[in-house]
Amino acid sequence: MDICPKCALPLPACVCSEIAKTQQNINVKTEKRRFGKVSTMIEGFDDGIDIKDIAKKLKAKRACGGTVKNKVIELQGNHKGHIKPILVELGFSEDQIKD
Prior knowledge:
The chain is an alpha+beta fold. The chain has helices at residues 16-22, 51-62, 80-89; strands at 26-32, 38-43, 66-69, 72-76, 97-98.
């Protein structure tokens, strides 16, 4: 049986990712890009989080395109008011998310 190097629990019982989700300070903002397009930027993720998986789930929920660059999730379009409930559904603390 494999053991997690961080919490020393067996991998099926590992809670490192859940603990990491409650300790994030996430900032959601919009940014005007080239040709007048608006992008939603979600930043503040630490190393213990799988950012690509979160970006994939956000893109699927909001039906938009996006990418991950330098620990920042960029979504195409203005989704500022819709991101917070989705992140809370994924296990992040509502108090830590700033719109």
